[in-house]
């Protein structure tokens, strides 16, 4: 009888192999086909820019035969902390609720797992669970529920028609921006002490003194009136910037949790309804088990040229996400297993077997730019060295052909050891036509000017100590957590941190209409660590700010962020019409382009490793053919990585999560190549939309290198009521 049972089992496996339920190349039912330790989940109490709260764990992938799905994979992750405390808990990573086809207990792996977990399920019942998490050492099933997609005030939720909506406070909600309540009622405080404490809590806060000139600070009689008049002008122009900076310190995991996109457990209410939102406490990352065959998508993003490290993003059918980070390799091997499994599923579907998920479930992101999408001069230049720099100088030290130098930097950037010499030119601290002797005189003059700035700082802070103390506290709070992994700023009581603080305070004193805004420390840090001189770093930083949306226009009332976003919307419409149409379906939320705000404000510093981000900076500073090269970089990212957004039909909040999770997992070389190709394509357009006329700066003489004139046409995309001259 035993021989007949064995024969029957082999016949059953053979039939399953034909229909896709088994594969010699992948594994049999119950086989573990992949395992890897130290696969991380980043806990939701981590902050971007700081050391992430890594939670390493043991990951395994197991084959399972499913009657409805055929061959499927069960992915399981167990925290190392749990594994160290209880080594036997490694058994708990096997799926519960699997119906066994074998009758002999010793041969049933899944049954052994249920015994180890102390399961008391009725063997006659067949349970199909998609997700499991561990709560206090016990595996808890998680049922997928539909995520609310509508935002309504709390008061409106009393209406039964809004049962599926997500309640929000009755305030003006900024899409994609976490709602904070801690400021409620504080603005009405009449005590100066309370006002100072409120401002010191956030680096985004501003004070009356922030918007006043030194002359106004010296006049105590008109101090309050002058403050009120300045707030509307200065802060109003920077309102969108202040809103956007709230996303700087939000990790993808935090954003997913706050917007109900995190894959967490659920809780049954008294009405026996499933409601999401029971967030886990910090440090309680738990066991995770999921049937990949029932997931909407699995996306693999590599973060290194060898394509071994990166992240795996799993999305459920109801749009909840889990992000697994592979910091120590092994992701390439897992991707190969996924590819084999996908091919088996595809073959099964062709032969008539069921498939719960359509194609596009597995997306391994390895984008490439074909030659026709690149600038024809791509690859003709190498990073600028000292010898090449000297070849552009005459005997007096004057750069003879600055246009060629900027073109060289635009295509290839500069070597690390050349940045200290080249950056002051790119940031216009030194004129290109200046000689070596003239630059020495300029350096001496700047040193004396900086001493006067320091004296002015002391006088100004003495006139309003409480107000400037709050600004200093905001700066210090950001400085102590900026680039802590950089040896130049590492360690407690690092004098370089004090230098950074002094530069930012001096800048706020000299630019009261801008003051200090969160994110400035991120832009200053590379300048200071590269130049290693307070005076040079200050003036380079000042000119850098003039190129960013932090700066105000001479009129002081134009929102530069909105100007950039208007350009970007029309550039996406021109270069990526499919992506633009997808955004239009989500409007008005998606058309605010919240996913690009951090790119523009921090100049891609959080999106690429620092050395590559600095290459982007140098390409923008070179101002070759346009002063808005950073927008071409934004379009390049959308062009390279945005196709998945369309394929998955992601709504606006998931678009922001998608691009946020791409940070440090994009190919910077490819993005720059694509951006330069888009710029080349733009310069060769027969006609240019009138709303993009500003991209064609008259000071960039290279624009006319191949065309004698430019033609513009009205594309009816004006946001104002002005009459278009090209109609």
TrEMBL record:
Region (Disordered): 87-109, 179-228
MF annotations from Gene Ontology: GTPase activator activity
Compositional bias per record (Basic and acidic residues), positions renumbered to this chain: 99-109, 179-198
Entry-linked Pfam families: PH_RBD, RabGAP-TBC
Bias (Polar residues): 199-208
Domain of life the protein comes from: Eukaryota
InterPro entries: Rab-GAP-TBC_dom, Rab-GAP_TBC_sf, SGSM1/2_RBD
Signal sequence residues: none
Gene3D superfamilies (UniProt xref): 2.30.29.230, putative rabgap domain of human tbc1 domain family member 14 like domains, Ypt/Rab-GAP domain of gyp1p, domain 3
Domain named Rab-GAP TBC: residues: 413-624
A GO cellular component annotation in the UniProt record: cytoplasm
Coiled-coil region list: none
Keywords: GTPase activation
Protein name according to UniProt: Rab-GAP TBC domain-containing protein
Species, as recorded: Caenorhabditis briggsae
Lineage, opening ranks: Eukaryota, Metazoa, Ecdysozoa, Nematoda, Chromadorea
């Amino acid at each position: 009888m035993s021989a007949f049972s064995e024969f029957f089992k082999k016949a059953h496996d053979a039939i399953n192999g034909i229909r896709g339920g088994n594969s010699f190349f992948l594994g049999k039912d119950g086989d573990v086909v992949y395992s890897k330790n130290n696969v991380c989940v980043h806990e939701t109490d981590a902050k971007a820019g700081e050391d992430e709260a890594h939670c390493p764990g043991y990951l395994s992938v197991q084959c399972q035969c499913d009657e409805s799905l055929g061959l499927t994979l069960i992915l399981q992750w167990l925290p190392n902390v749990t594994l160290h405390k209880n080594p036997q808990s490694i058994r708990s990573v096997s799926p519960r609720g699997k119906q066994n086809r074998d009758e002999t207990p010793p041969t049933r792996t899944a049954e052994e797992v249920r015994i180890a977990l102390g399961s008391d399920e009725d063997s006659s019942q067949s349970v199909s669970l998609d997700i499991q998490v561990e709560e206090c050492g016990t595996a808890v099933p998680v049922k997928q529920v539909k995520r609310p997609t509508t935002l309504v005030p709390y008061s409106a939720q009393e209406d039964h028609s809004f049962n599926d909506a997500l309640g929000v406070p009755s305030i003006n909600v900024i899409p994609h921006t976490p709602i904070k309540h801690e400021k409620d009622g504080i603005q009405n405080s009449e005590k100066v002490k309370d006002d100072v404490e409120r401002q010191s809590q956030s680096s985004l806060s501003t004070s009356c003194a922030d918007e006043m000139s030194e002359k106004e600070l010296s006049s105590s009689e008109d101090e309050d009136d002058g403050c009120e008049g300045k707030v509307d002008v200065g802060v109003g122009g920077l309102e969108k910037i202040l809103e956007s900076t709230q996303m700087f310190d939000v990790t993808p995991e935090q954003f997913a949790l706050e917007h109900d996109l995190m894959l967490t457990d659920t809780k049954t209410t008294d009405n026996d309804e499933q409601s999401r939102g029971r967030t886990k406490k910090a440090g309680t990352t738990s066991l995770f088990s999921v049937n990949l065959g029932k997931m909407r998508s699995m996306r693999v993003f590599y973060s290194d040229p060898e394509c071994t490290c990166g992240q795996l993003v799993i999305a459920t059918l109801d749009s909840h996400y889990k992000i697994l980070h592979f910091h120590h390799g092994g992701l390439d091997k897992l991707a190969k297993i996924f590819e084999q499994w996908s091919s088996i599923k595809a073959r099964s579907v062709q032969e008539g077997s069921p498939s719960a998920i359509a194609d596009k479930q597995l997306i391994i992101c390895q984008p490439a730019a074909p030659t026709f999408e690149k600038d024809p001069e791509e690859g003709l230049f190498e990073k600028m060295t000292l010898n090449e720099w000297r070849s552009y100088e005459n005997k007096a030290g004057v750069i003879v052909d600055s246009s060629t130098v900027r073109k060289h930097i635009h295509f290839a950037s500069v070597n690390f050891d050349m940045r200290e010499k080249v950056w002051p030119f790119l940031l216009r601290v030194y004129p290109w036509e200046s000689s070596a002797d003239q630059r020495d005189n300029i350096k001496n003059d700047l040193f004396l000017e900086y001493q006067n700035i320091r004296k002015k700082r002391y006088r100004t802070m003495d006139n309003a100590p409480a107000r400037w103390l709050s600004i200093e506290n905001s700066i210090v709070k950001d400085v102590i957590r900026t680039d802590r992994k950089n040896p130049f700023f590492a360690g407690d009581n690092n004098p370089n941190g004090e230098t950074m603080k002094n530069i930012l305070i001096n800048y706020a004193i000299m630019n009261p209409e801008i003051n200090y805004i969160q994110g400035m420390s991120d832009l200053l840090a590379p300048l200071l660590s590269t130049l290693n001189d307070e005076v040079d770093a200050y003036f380079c930083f000042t000119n850098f700010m003039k190129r960013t949306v932090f700066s105000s226009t001479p009129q002081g009332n134009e929102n530069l962020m909105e100007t950039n976003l208007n350009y970007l919307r029309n550039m996406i419409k021109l270069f990526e019409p499919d992506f633009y149409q997808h955004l239009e379906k989500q409007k008005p939320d998606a058309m605010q382009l919240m996913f690009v705000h951090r790119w523009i404000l921090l100049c891609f510093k959080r999106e690429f490793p620092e050395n590559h981000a600095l290459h982007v900076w140098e390409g923008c500073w070179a101002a070759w053919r346009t002063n808005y090269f950073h927008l071409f970089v934004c379009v390049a990212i959308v062009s390279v990585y945005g196709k998945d957004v369309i394929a998955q039909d992601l709504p606006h909040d998931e678009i922001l999560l998608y691009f946020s999770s791409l940070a440090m997992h994009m190919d910077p070389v490819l993005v720059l190549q694509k951006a330069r190709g888009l710029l080349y394509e733009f310069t060769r357009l027969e006609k240019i939309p009138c709303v993009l006329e500003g991209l064609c700066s008259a000071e960039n003489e290279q624009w006319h290198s191949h065309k004698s004139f430019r033609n513009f046409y009205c594309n009816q995309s004006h946001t104002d009521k002005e009459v278009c001259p090209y109609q």
